[in-house]
Design a protein that fits this description.
mainly alpha, Heme Oxygenase, Chain A, globular
Amino acid sequence: MTSPVSTTSLNQHAAEFDGAVADAIEAFPSARLIQRVQDGSVTITHYHQILVTLFPQTYDGPYSIALAAARCSWEHEAAKEYLIAHAAEEHSHWRWALDDLASTGYRGPNPRDLFPHPSCEAYLSFVERVSERVPYARLATASVLEGIAAAFGERYGRQLLQTLKLKPEQATFFLRHSETDQVHREEIAEAIASTPMTPHEWAWMKYVATIAGKFYRAMYDHEAFI
């Protein structure tokens, strides 16, 4: 007979997951693009490149979140309900990226016609696998992304405006996310707290948070920002 897992053990697993999320957030500012934002060397070309890079993630991402909601068992009811609501809320945010590109003079190909940058493809492929295999762990990817946006979105968004002399309505993708993701972070924490998990499931949560952080940061660190 398997011994019951102690509350202390589960709390330790939860703390390790929280640590993985915190590590991912802490590592994010070391990305090349963020370094350029901080030192004032970012250009409008860099701005266009990050919007194009992120576009597939915001265009396709909500549908893999919805897939995760469908795949979640009812044992993870809180995760299931949060994920379907989150997918619905996020599903049109790609329009913010297109609006910002159009309002800042972008003349490149329509992002909807482009294949994802390899860094974005890696992230998209990973989260789709998570949605299929361990769907409740999309709470971990959300914790990382929403945590990064809540921690840095407004600060770096304002620096971007100042350096590139943009108006707030030309940076809606980053500024609006910095506002909404403060609330999302609290909602995710509540969903996680309401979702019972085994030690093995907590281990998946930690792993997914770690890998998602690396792949997401890579989208801000690729060759266009050297």
